[in-house]
Amino acid sequence: MTDETASGPAVEPASHYFAVQAKATVPLPTAASVEAKALLDAGGILTKLVKTVIDVVTNIVLAPVRIFNFILDAVISLLGGSASPDPGPDPAPDPTPVDPEPSPNYLTNPKLIATIPGLSDGYERDDPVVVLTDTRGYKIYTLNNAVTLAGSHWVSVSPIDAVNFTVQGAPNIAFDAAAVAMLRDSQGRETLYLTDPSRDMALIVAPESGNARELQLPPGSTPGDIVASPDGKRVYIANRGYPDFVSPSIAVIDPGSTNVSQIPLEFRPDKLFVTADSKRLVALHSNGSIAVIDTASRQVSKILQGPSVGLWDRVVMSGNGRLYFTSISELGVVDTVDTSSGSSSKITLPSGSFQISLLALSPKGDRLFTYAMDGTLSVIDTASRKVLGSDRTPGSVDWALGGAMMRGNLTVSPDGRRVYVLSPGVGQPPITGALATFDVTKNKFIGEPLPVGHLATSVAVSADSSRVYVASMTADGSHAVYVIDSGKPLLQKAIQAPASTADLYNRLRDLTDWPQGKDGVAIDAVKSKADGKMRLIVYLGGTQLDEGATRGTLRNVPLYFEGDADTSGIIEKIDRALKTLPQGTEIMLVGFSQGGMDAQAVESDWKHGAHRGSVTTVVTFASPMILPPGANEDHVIFLREDSDSVPMLTDWLNFLNVQDHNGKWRQAGQVFEFDSGIDYPLIEDPLGLKAHGDRRTYSMVATAFDKSKAPEYAVVKADLARFRGDIVNYWQY
């Protein structure tokens, strides 16, 4: 091992406002992923193999402690530890863009612009304690400490509209969470994976809809840390096992299935990382042991020893696999281990440096940021190991209640230009949290620390670096999310609205299929490229047979009989979205199968109420016709596959109806039919439901419709063109 002393400018002693935590009575674990991890020490939870009365009583008594641990550790770890694996100074692929181009400069110092309270209904209160951001900047997600008047505790998940600063829908109840990771697939959709060590289980949550499903792990697994691979193809869980009963391992989850495989380990894994190319998985034990695993073969390729001092405090990893540890026993020292070569070394800060309590890496991995117990933030070049600059947080040192300091968070903005230091709260009551901003281009703190409530627990930065979100307790004892304008202009990184009918169909399925959509309703607010006006696209999904879904078969039976269905729930959601848009906003209803029947019913019922917008267009895929043509018939289109039996259901079931809706719509020229060629063997698909639900079927029908030159479709095609542009907000239920 080599010892490298980092040289840098001398730091004058000064008081500071931010404190770090010494060991407190509630155990606090180490750092976790910046983007999506809230690590909670779940040690001591006994497995299902040893179920005694004492264990049961103990678990009941400790339930509030676990929740408190979750709050503190989420907190401590979510953004105060390792960044999501990003490339280090050596060349390495980076699947996530660092900063959009062009990247505007920061124009002002950060300022508080909004406070978003958690939901409370008088019986249950959902206090946000962890904040996660989506890649598009329109949503944030909070993990909440849910508490009832009866004293029950659990963890819930809430989606929040980051444009209008409102919680969307009731929080989804999760369970006794130990850790959380956010997986982003190739389509940019986010899924949360949580671990529950008390039940040896993982929970998979679609945060937009709140839908969740449980994934049972082997008995005695005692799952802890969790990490998602950057390529979105795997999720890894650290199964710590149970001494003398269950061996430790790493569970490997394929997001596309419920299959779980195991990678056996020689030691209990406490921390997991994945390299930026997703080819290496790194598992750490608290004593410094490191296992490097080839993710293709799922075999341990090498076992390394970490810091020479053994126990580490905080750890981060660059995208190319270099680990950086803070030492428990050495002051001003960062240990490093290259998991590729196995080599190790030390970075020693200037003489007189205090113990390092927080670490963070820049998005490119070329800068390491350390935060010491005396309030000094130092910037280290990871290639030269030299200190490029340092500064102290403004303010004064104070101790938290009980004489212990609570550790904060250190997180770097995605553009790499700002480092945010979050103090959970110091001083005598009222305990006030604060957020300080370090300008990397100037190597100094800017402005004054912003007060962010009491006992601040988590900080996250939007993908464009324009917004900072802090979860904290407010003066009345409830919790809220503080929204901070970083001073960087908000980029209009709108998602492209569907540019073709096939795109429209696939976005409909993306947003409303289970488990992404529980109610099967989603809404896009679109700024039209045709005239710059705002319009709404309302997506209504098909029948959902999954347990927990609200759009089952019984829901659509009334629609078979003259559209006699309750559309109030859908209309209420549309009206809610319209509150953010100009009077007279045009609305297009788009439905698949049952959703197409809903669209017809909503269009019929809409004119009987007072609304801020008007339904101008209806597009249905694979939908039966439940109403005859009306005054708006030219603005309605039914897209059908020639051999699909589902659109004919109303004719078969409503055989007493002498009105021929099909014939009238065909006569009006508003039915487009096409043979997709998608066909399943009769023995596999006797009712034709597989072909009906196969995305290829109606993608091909939609593409054929766009290519059609038939004049009878000209009006509805002109409508579709007006709804193309940029999505500036969206809602999903």
TrEMBL record:
SUPFAM superfamilies named in the record: alpha/beta-Hydrolases, C-terminal (heme d1) domain of cytochrome cd1-nitrite reductase
Matches recorded under Gene3D superfamilies: YVTN repeat-like/Quinoprotein amine dehydrogenase
Region (Disordered): 85-107
InterPro entries hit by this protein: AB_hydrolase_fold (IPR029058), Haem_d1_sf (IPR011048), Host-pathogen_enzymatic-act (IPR051200), WD40/YVTN_repeat-like_dom_sf (IPR015943)
Coiled coil: none
Source species, domain of life: Bacteria
Compositional bias annotation for Pro residues: 86-103
Protein name: 40-residue YVTN family beta-propeller repeat-containing protein [Thermobispora bispora DSM]
Species: Mycolicibacterium parafortuitum (Mycobacterium parafortuitum)
